[in-house]
Amino acid sequence: MAQVGKKAFRLIAAAALIIAAVAAHVSAQPAGGKTSDTRPTTTTKSPPKTPPAKTTLKTNSKAGSSGTPASIDGKWWTSGNDFGASEVVFTQNGSNVSGVIHYADGRAGTINGTMIGKRLQNTWTNSSGESGSGWLELSWNNFLGGPWHNQKVRDGSWTLMRVEGKWCFGGSRARIRTVTHNARGELLVITEDGSRDGGHLDGPWIYLESDGMTIKGDTDFRANRVNWSSGFFWSWCGRN
Questions:
Q1: Is residue 109 part of a domain?
Q2: Domain span at residue 218?
Q3: Of 120, 140, 161, which residue constitutes the final position of a domain?
């Protein structure tokens, strides 16, 4: 009996040693339980790709309009200045302008320049051996300001006015006057019924001769209206 008790005691002691060893191993594990040699796979969504922002080129509409050359084709009359009575006929190709000058006294000349916006930078010569350079600024139906200079003249000026074209009597398109003139400023006016009247240009003034009478017309500052001394008026209707 004593021998049996000793065996039991030994078994109990061995079991206690095993339990103590297991407990020591478990206490050495990290908190939260068993670790794994391989990390769990985690799926991370990459942010959606966005295309690069398009660069929009801004256009300056004001600059574009100012840079677009105005159209000045046709005949113009020099008025009220020290350049001399003449007509100038411009031919325009884009911004390039050429023209011929017909003076009232029979002289002739040429003009060449570049139209930038509403300004014509130009040089001219004539059959008297005169020449000059300067600019003209288009304003309404006028070329205004145009200073010029040459060997003799330091501060000349000339102004051009568009007279040749269609004018509406009293502003009515049913009563159109078609007007032409030559280098001497002699006018021919054809009314809507085909009748013809004469007249002449003298500087900025227009004189109309009809039924034995001469009436004077003053143009306004935009040169798109003629106020007649008889009380009626013409308004500009456009070129022929």
A1: yes
A2: 165-238
A3: 161
